């Protein structure tokens, strides 16, 4: 009737799931560090790690297992599913989402457009690809990268050799450095039976390989939006996702190409809290609890989210300055201050995207700049 | 910089404040029963009652004291303020908000329109008022009533005598039974320095003296709306409220008259969570923390809230049925099921008020009717 949902992780994604779960009356239990942000909003926290022992403790206390990050012992998730636990997303979905090489193999076979790619373990492999596509290239660790970690742009054989040395013979995904026009993301909620709800595509604006801004809806042609949303559906079906799926995409030469996946709520979807009828966090819970999905329609003409990334001061000390900006929704994750760390985000909804962007940037800037008030 | 806010009470109002406080990074501490709804979302709970001892324990742990209900030892709140604690709203505001006779005395002197009234302690007093205004009359306990408790409609001297006997010589507020056309409510956020933000007036629909539906904006003339909002501002200034103030109003013969007050977030304002740029819960926290207030503008054309009042079944067992209604936001307070108890509410935003009302009523009805799914 009312499943208890066990979440692996206690970061900002679980922190944003918690109010949605409370509203719906869905009990939560976290596998997390008791000092994690989400532990402030969830009473039932298992102090443990996402290893076999932790996952089994969590499974014994909930009806549905889900995740807010990928760094989880997938083999144990698979064993738990085989023993009858509801594991959503499945181990198979997590394996694809966690591995950029598997993704390309599987999704290209399902007709999802991907950039040219190969796998190399040494300089010869990289150079062979460069012979076909030219320099510069992008080398990626297939697993574990985020916010630009595990991704290198290499201009020539000597810089490629340095990366090969660094990963010490592990597989590297090799791609051309694409002339990216725009980055998009599509968020898809999917229930165990296959029912889907697709959010309108958003534009994601990166800086130093970290997502900085998101614009809902993406300011691109209807044709590109439709392509992106269609790819989102195809990916969700191909990998059998349950819960939220974020599909990050590149627009290159007017074509939409797969970048990467995350089988969970995603930074690109924070804008849905204010911008959409149902947030990605509520739809993640509804999907994994196998409840009817909520509308993904926009509440208004547009919404812009800007991340709050640690700079000069702790954003919590600059709240008054940010709230002095009109109509801004401030979300501070309760994480300790560190330069370069995502500490929160702000969202502005407005009829005009430029006004929304200007106000969101102003509020985010006020939270991180200058001396504390 | 970042005040810790102490809330007296742990019911649904504190439960709805908790996510807003988390988003803003404002630490909360509750004086509540650890089984209260809000204790699910707030880690720091003082297990105690709102008496002198409890309030002093709370004050020692927070920077700002506020309330989610009126049943608080106001004398202690006054002492704490005299000792230098920030008590918001003040004891003086609480005394007026808690006493319907004081309200009328004070507010009539400030030019707020009120219905004819008197105070009676015996049948002779009631009959004298009836001689002037006729039967039926409404008799009210000046303090402690809610959802129709402490309010009696009397048609004749014998039924009036029964009420006089029941209250055993205490003061009774006596008013004519007014031909009410519409009930309105105005919500006002006010900071310590006097800055105010007024929400558009809402219509409140009562049934058996309990609020059942709220419509934002109230479907009445601009003139009545403007009158209501002006009264809201005047009341907030007259009683020096800090935090949210709810002013309930009657429309009688085209005039707007004071009904009663609550110096806290209020059921009439739950619709602001989805319907307004800033919810009443966030603005309450911003006001008592002396932070800039958020916009009270509507997010869209209209929103309708319907309370979920316990009937045949526990709403938590009927979630799937309710979520199958399009675009409905479900809020279940986590309170144990009891017929007649407010267990939650649902809100629908739509361009058309009739469609919004129909969907909200349908979702609320599905939550309470029939056998569990």
Q: CATH superfamily name of the largest domain in chain A?
A: ATP-grasp fold, B domain
Low-confidence stretches of chain A: none
- The beta-strand count of chain A equals 18
Helix/strand order of chain A: EHEEHEHEHHEHEEHEEEEEHEEHHEHEEH
Find the biggest chain interface. A-B, 42 and 42 residues
Q: What about the largest sheet of chain A?
A: 9 strands, antiparallel
As a percent range, the share of helical residues of chain A equals 25-40%
Q: Strand portion of chain A, in percent?
A: 25-35%
Return the CATH architecture of the largest domain in chain A: 2-Layer Sandwich
Calculate the terminal CA-CA distance of chain A, rounded to whole Å. 49 Å
Q: Which structural class best describes the helix and strand composition of chain A?
A: alpha+beta
Describe this structure in words.
Two copies of one chain form a homodimer. With 373 residues, chain A is an alpha+beta fold. Chain A folds into three domains: 5-87, 3-Layer(aba) Sandwich (Rossmann fold); 116-176, Dna Ligase, domain 1, CATH 3.30.1490.20; 180-368, 2-Layer Sandwich (D-amino Acid Aminotransferase, Chain A, domain 1), CATH 3.30.470. Chain A has twelve helices and 18 strands. In chain A, strands 10, 11, 12, 13, 14, 15, 16, 17 and 18 form a nine-stranded antiparallel β-sheet that branches. In chain A, strand 12 and strand 13 (210-216) form a beta hairpin. In chain A, helix 2 (52-59) runs parallel beside helix 3 (74-82) and helix 3 runs antiparallel to helix 4 (91-97). The longest helix of chain A has 18 residues, at 222-239. The radius of gyration of chain A is 20 Å and the shape is globular. The mean pLDDT of chain A is 95. At the A-B interface, helix 1, helix 11 and strand 17 of A face helix 1, helix 11 and strand 17 of B.
